[in-house]
Amino acid sequence: MENSAQTKEMVQRRYSEIALQDKQTNESSCCGSGCCSTEVYNIMSDDYSNLAGYNPDADLGLGCGLPTQFAKIKKGNTVIDLGSGAGNDCFIARNETGEDGRIIGIDFTPAMISKARANAQKLGFANVEFRQGDIENIPVSANVADVIVSNCVLNLVPDKDNVFKEIFRVLKPGGHFSISDIVLEGELPAEIKKTAEMYVGCIAGAIQKQNYMALIKANGFENILIQKEKNIVVPDDILKQYLSEEQLLTYKNSDAKIKSITVYAEKPKSCGCGTECCN
Question: What is the pTM of this model?
Fold first, then answer.
């Protein structure tokens, strides 16, 4: 990635295309990237279909976890979904908040916003809205959200530290987040890390798990907890598009791992400057 602006342009362009793909195509690839496996293989995402509020039209198969299942959403909460796509997590969150809650989906890609708004209109949800914006500069005022969720999105963002700063700003004092994301343990082969298609496929933009957790702590969050963790196994027919046979064997024999984690953390109720946290 030559610079942040080029990375964002690439992600936006590719996710505009992904918005038009069917769920089966997205699920048989790495978060919707073009490197589809010949096997119909759910590489990243978990099954949402049994969760209350699930809407098939909003499920593009792009996630790597079930953050809304772990997010401790209550009736009447204001919930923000970062990287809301076609609205899948927003509609499940709306089932938890009820009509008295408020759901705001933020997405970088106009095509995704259009798709999500159409889905919300079909469902008749007046308390669900979608805003186009960059999650490095969330288009929401400070101290608004009770809960923030996100599913396989922060790994696509160049400045992850700034995203966590923004999450802290937007959460109410005592509010919390539950975020599913891709992280690494050990070193991925350079051929994967430098490939744009795999970046849009969530892998090459991921950072080391310990660094990811350190960013959360450094930005002032407390009660940090990994709620779920699983290994991501990318099929050989995808990896062979990037690695030689020798490189593939070396990778498989290494300690490098691609993982999906769902992380929970809270914004403190007080930062020592009165009843509310300073921003």
Answer: 0.84
